[in-house]
Write a structure and sequence with these properties.
Distance between the termini of chain B: 26 Å
Number of helices of chain A: 15
Helix content of chain A: 40-55%
Number of domains of chain A: 2
Helix content of chain B: over 70%
Largest sheet of chain A: 6 strands, mixed
Structural class of chain B: mainly alpha
Distance between the termini of chain A: 45 Å
Shape of chain B: globular
CATH superfamily of the largest domain in chain A: Periplasmic binding protein-like II
CATH architecture of the largest domain in chain A: 3-Layer(aba) Sandwich
Shape of chain A: globular
Largest interface: A-B, 35 and 32 residues
Strand content of chain A: 5-15%
CATH topology of chain B: MetI-like fold
Number of helices of chain B: 12
Order of helices and strands of chain A: HEHEHEHHHEEHHEHEHEEHHHHH
CATH class of the largest domain in chain A: Alpha Beta
Oligomer: heterodimer
CATH topology of the largest domain in chain A: D-Maltodextrin-Binding Protein, domain 2
Low-confidence stretches of chain A: 1-31
Structural class of chain A: alpha/beta
Mean pLDDT of chain A: 89
Number of strands of chain B: 0
Radius of gyration of chain B: 22 Å
Largest sheet of chain B: none
Strand content of chain B: under 5%
CATH architecture of chain B: Orthogonal Bundle
Radius of gyration of chain A: 22 Å
């Protein structure tokens, strides 16, 4: 018995260790060796585009995914895996620039980026990358409400519907701190970049008040749950809207009247990248109009590649107000900015209070 | 003697690399702050309302799960132990079979089963029965814990029960003990080592889980495992994460000491 127990114990320990090991298995890659290590959002690229890149350049792509900016940052900062190309959002890029984690891009190696990315997106990028030195826009969009027309029969115009008792257990919220607070702050008429403690406290109270009505806090799962009719209302990124509508025509996307977040996800190269040369090739390849179009059609997130946009065959989609909204009609869109270490800590502490409530 | 030592080096290397060093790192981070100065703040942080609530909820849910596991597993283990070898190895295999599948996958399957528009509710509403709304509640988490950790309870119980000498039980019956007396005076006390190790094997992973609560609790129920996980993966505060891990370790050690006390003159103790 004793022996068996010992065996079982060692087995258990070794299994745990093995899982731990495999968790950080993809860590080594030295020198410019025909590889490029890419760290992107989940389901954020057409796998075919990666295959084409590998075939055309002979560079092997090692591909890894993350679910939120907050999960991505510690891994890049710790440097255990040396990524060559990462795709964070606006405020996170600002944080990475501030903390000296990013490499200046060599735009002479990125002809497609300079040629095909629309000027307004470079302009927008300057909010977090002042001189357009570190990032190349990949996708952009807004955050809004996706609702199921068969379950909601009133016009949806405001974030306040997420606080409506009628939809108890039918509401999906984003399980990421900035997006959750954005909704509450906008509802209260505040800026989503506030660090004013009273405003944040009020937002926290609102989120706590909302919690009993929320079915679940999810991220990528919002899409599948909404398609499956699991919930009536969900907070979602605009890029998912076209895809979900295609799968379930009952779904409708709106940008609430209080305003919302407008975001850009951009390619960046971390300072400790081992294959900077290949990373530039990868980014430039993704900016090629045919590839950008392929990616757009696969992931349905708005592309800043204006050449690719003009190549979209379906008129409805090319002129879609969801994928390519006329931004001039919205006056209260905001981009997240990095709030500094103290701001981050404040948001995280309040979010923890909401989650544990 | 030398040869033996040589043979032990891989294990020594293993335990230093993957047990001692990581433990030391946790203790280092747990007792320091961002500047590297010594602090107890990460440990005392457990007293804050959010952390304490998460810890309390974790203890409560894992205790409930452990009790349910014990109640479910004991009769099964008794049935298994009384069967002949051929039959019971078949049933044991059936029981272990789901464990060959990935733990995450099995938990995710429960999510699909329990959803509002999930398989179970579709069947129930087809039969015009009231639907089951436990997804994203603590009940679903307990269900997930019981489902995932039940085999850890069955196996030690079975091991303990199968070793009981049938003659002892027969002797009790001969001496006039009824089935209830035989169970309370003979079978149960003799199976106690199995009970204790089963309880530890279920309670400890249930206390530390964060996957089950995320998947089946819809991230609405925050357990101490989730708090620690988020400190590492999202907030990036390794100091606080390590400090809370140390607190959790203390609770695990307490539970092991308790089992050792209950089990002091038997062989089943884990410590």
């Amino acid at each position: 018995m004793k022996k068996r127990k010992l065996l079982a114990l060692t087995l258990a320990v070794s299994i745990t260790a093995a899982t731990l090991l495999s968790g950080c298995g993809s860590s080594s890659s030295g020198g410019e060796n025909g590889q490029v290590v890419v760290y992107n959002w989940g389901e954020y690229i057409d796998p075919e585009a990666i295959a084409m890149f590998e075939e055309e350049t002979g560079i092997e792509v090692i591909y890894d995914e993350f679910e939120t900016n907050e999960m991505m940052y510690p891994k890049v900062e710790a440097g255990a895996t040396q990524y060559d190309v990462v795709c964070p959002s606006d405020y996170m890029i600002q944080k990475m620039i501030d903390n000296d984690l990013l490499m200046q891009l060599d735009f002479s190696k990125l002809p497609n980026a300079t040629e095909h990315i629309g000027e307004q997106y470079w302009e927008q990028s300057r909010q977090f990358d002042t001189d357009n030195m570190y990032s190349v826009p990949y996708c952009w969009g807004t955050v809004g409400i996706l609702y199921n027309k068969t379950m909601v029969d009133e016009p949806v115009t405001s974030w306040s519907i997420l606080w409506d008792e009628k939809y108890k257990d039918n509401i999906l919220m984003q399980d990421s701190v900035r997006d959750a607070f954005m909704v509450a702050l906008k509802l209260n008429g505040n800026s989503m970049n506030t660090t004013n403690e009273a405003e944040l406290e009020a937002a926290k109270e609102a989120l706590i008040e909302q919690k009993p009505l929320v079915q679940a806090y999810v991220i990528d799962q919002v899409r599948d749950k909404m398609i499956g009719g699991e919930a009536a209302i969900g907070v979602i990124y605009s890029g998912e809207a076209i895809y979900t509508q295609r799968e379930n025509p009952d779904l409708e996307y709106v940008i609430p009247e209080e305003g919302t977040n407008i975001w850009i996800d951009s390619w960046v190269i971390p300072k400790n990248a081992q294959n900077a040369e290949n990373a530039h090739k990868f980014i430039d390849f993704m900016c090629r109009p045919d590839i950008a179009l392929m990616n757009f059609e696969y992931i349905t997130y708005s592309t800043p590649n204006v050449t690719a946009q003009s190549m979209i065959e379906d008129d409805d989609i090319r002129n879609s107000s969801i994928a390519f909204p006329d931004l001039s009609q919205y006056t209260n869109l905001e981009t997240y900015s990095y709030l500094g270490e103290e701001g981050d800590a404040l948001y995280n502490a309040l979010w923890k209070e909401v989650k544990s409530y | 003697m030398n040869k033996k030592k040589l043979l032990a080096t891989p294990y020594l290397f293993w335990s230093v690399m993957f047990i001692i060093i990581p433990l030391c790192m946790i203790f280092y981070y747990g007792f320091t702050d961002k500047t590297g100065a010594f602090t107890l703040e990460n440990i005392t942080a457990i007293a804050s309302a959010e952390h304490f609530k998460a810890l309390w909820l974790s203890i409560l849910l894992s205790l409930i799960s452990t009790v349910i596991c014990l109640l479910l597993a004991y009769p099964l283990a008794m049935i298994l132990a009384n069967m002949n070898v051929n039959q019971n190895s078949f049933i044991v295999v059936i029981f272990i079979l789901p464990m060959w599948m990935n733990f995450l996958l099995r938990t995710l399957a429960w999510q699909t089963l329990l959803e509002k528009t999930g398989v179970i509710n579709n069947i129930l509403s087809f039969l015009h029965l009231p639907t089951l709304n436990i997804i994203n509640t603590p009940y679903a988490i307990v269900l997930g814990m019981v489902y995932n950790f039940l085999p850890f309870m069955v196996l030690p119980l079975y091991n303990a029960l199968v070793k009981i000498d049938k003659n002892v039980i027969n002797a009790a019956k001969d001496l006039g003990a009824n089935p209830v007396q035989t169970f309370t005076k003979i079978t149960f006390p003799l199976s106690l080592p199995g009970v204790i190790s089963g309880i530890t094997m279920v309670f400890v992973p249930a206390l530390t889980t964060f996957v089950i609560s995320t998947l089946l609790g819809g991230s609405k129920v925050l357990l101490i495992g989730n708090v620690i996980e988020q400190e590492f993966t999202q907030t990036g505060n390794w100091y606080l994460g390590s400090g809370l891990s140390i607190v959790l370790m203390i609770f695990i050690i307490i539970s092991m000491i308790l089992s050792a006390i209950f089990d002091k003159d038997r062989e089943g103790a884990l410590l």
